Amino acid sequence: MTPGLRKAYLQTAYLVRAPQGVHALRIGAVHPAFDAEVAAAGARAWAFITAWNPGSLPRSSEENVLAQAELLKVLGELGLVAWPAEGKADSGGWREESVCVLGLESVGAVALGRGFGQLAVVVGQLGEAARLLAIAQA
Considering the entire predicted model, what is its pTM? Predict the structure, then answer.
């Protein structure tokens, strides 16, 4: 991951529309109110994933919508709960529809992200800071 791309990930709000409201997650921060909602849903881990713009290369909105629909289909087939989400640059320069997947551990999140051509995912565990995980492409 390039330093510029890492900086972009760090300067992003990861907005999750959970049942009790919207939570703005940040890499490196702990989110007690969000953790409480995750725990209430019966999970201990979560992962923030998108299918938009694989490889951080812009695609058409039509391609992004189709890819995101495929991600949702895969999550449904796996029986995973996903809350609607979006990644939004602090500068307002871009946004990506995303999902926050409950109960998905880091290894599974990286595998899923890799399957959709992503360069990174954001993951968390109850009581711990959100982490950015770079994904090595095969």
Answer: 0.94
